[in-house]
Amino acid sequence: MAADASKDIAVNVSPPAPSTDEPMYGGYSRFEIELEFVQSLANPYYLNHLASQKLLTQPAFVAYLAYLRYWTRPPYLKYLTYPGPTLKHLELLQEERFRQDIMSPDLVQKLAEEEMKAAVQWHRE
């Protein structure tokens, strides 16, 4: 049931449009805050931290992760510094099983190693 609610929220809420009259939160725009947060999802240790804080079991937070999928599309996609792991983890976080499994230090280590291998391979090409 929570999955259905998160789909509805993701569809009905529009992503922020960068503008000059956008309200500021602590000196940052909503766009900047969401960009920083979505990019932090590239870090598997941060995902483990979110899980250890029980955020990944809260329906509102899961709905927020679904809402953040707008970063997978233009024009937002171009702002991501690490699009590969950021988008991969954002998609994995849509799955309840992954949100549970990320508590495992073994999975965190595996994801970190995969990212290191991908970075080395990218630099070789």
TrEMBL record:
**Chain residue ranges for the region called Disordered:** 1-22
| Gene3D superfamilies, sorted | Mediator of RNA polymerase II, submodule Med31 (Soh1)
User: Which top-level group of life is the source organism from?
Assistant: Eukaryota
Keyword Signal attributed = no
Location within or outside the cell? Nucleus
Q: Where is the signal peptide?
A: none
Q: What are the annotated GO cellular component locations?
A: mediator complex
Q: Which GO terms describe its biological process?
A: regulation of DNA-templated transcription
Give UniProt keywords alphabetically.
Answer: Activator, Nucleus, Transcription, Transcription regulation
* Any one GO molecular-function label of the UniProt entry: transcription coregulator activity
The protein's job, in short, is: Component of the Mediator complex, a coactivator involved in the regulated transcription of nearly all RNA polymerase II-dependent genes. Mediator functions as a bridge to convey information from gene-specific regulatory proteins to the basal RNA polymerase II transcription machinery. Mediator is recruited to promoters by direct interactions with regulatory proteins and serves as a scaffold for the assembly of a functional preinitiation complex with RNA polymerase II and the general transcription factors.
Family label: Belongs to the Mediator complex subunit 31 family.
Subunit-level organization: Component of the Mediator complex.
Mind telling me what this protein is named?
Mediator of RNA polymerase II transcription subunit 31
For this protein's source organism, the top of the classification is: Eukaryota, Fungi, Dikarya, Ascomycota, Pezizomycotina
